[in-house]
Amino acid sequence: MSSAVSRVPAANSQDALNHFQNLLSFETDCWDVHHAVSQNRKDFVLLDVRGEEAYKNGHIQTAESLPYSRINKDKLSEYPSDTLFVVYCAGPHCNATEKAAIRLATLNRPVKKMIGGITGWLDEGFTLIQETAKSI
15 and which of 3, 9, 11, 21 could share a cystine (Cβ 3.0–4.6 Å)? Predict the structure, then answer.
């Protein structure tokens, strides 16, 4: 008797390797972002793509507020074209990161999603800061 897990066979090893290697070009995680921020090794712009009120109530240190609906060419003009943007939102139940990533990719900007968002950040035991929004 098979389970719901094994009913659909796993991909062959080469397909799995390609998939998971490619996945890392689209996303990063809370630990990697935290390490980069805390070790002054941040070579990306961290964008909080939630609304400004949510940002003010708590966000990741060094994050800039740019709600996904406001991402446009003019807002990004101060950044070199090869700037990597890492986007996050409330968590796995929120698709603002995908909406932001689509806008950034449409503008030919490198982008990755921080999986987990604020929920993942807090689940890892990291803290948020509260302050007036630093908006782009």
Answer: 11
Residue 127's SS3 state is coil
Would you say 85 and 62 are in contact if contact means Cβ atoms under 8 Å apart?
no
DSSP state of 115: T
Could you read off the pLDDT tens digit of each residue along the chain, which spans 136 residues?
789 999 999 999 999 999 999 999 999 999 999 999 999 999 999 999 999 999 999 999 999 999 999 999 999 999 999 999 999 999 999 999 999 999 999 999 999 999 999 999 999 999 999 976 566 6
Identify the burial level of 52 via C-beta atoms within 10 angstroms of its C-beta, where 0-12 means exposed, 13-18 middle and 19 or more buried.
middle
Give the DSSP H/E element, type plus range, for residue 65.
strand 64-65
How far is residue 94's CA from residue 108's CA, in Å, rounded to a whole number?
23
Give the Cα separation of 94 and 90 in Å (integer).
Answer: 6
Joined together, the tokens standing for residue 103 give 């806008």
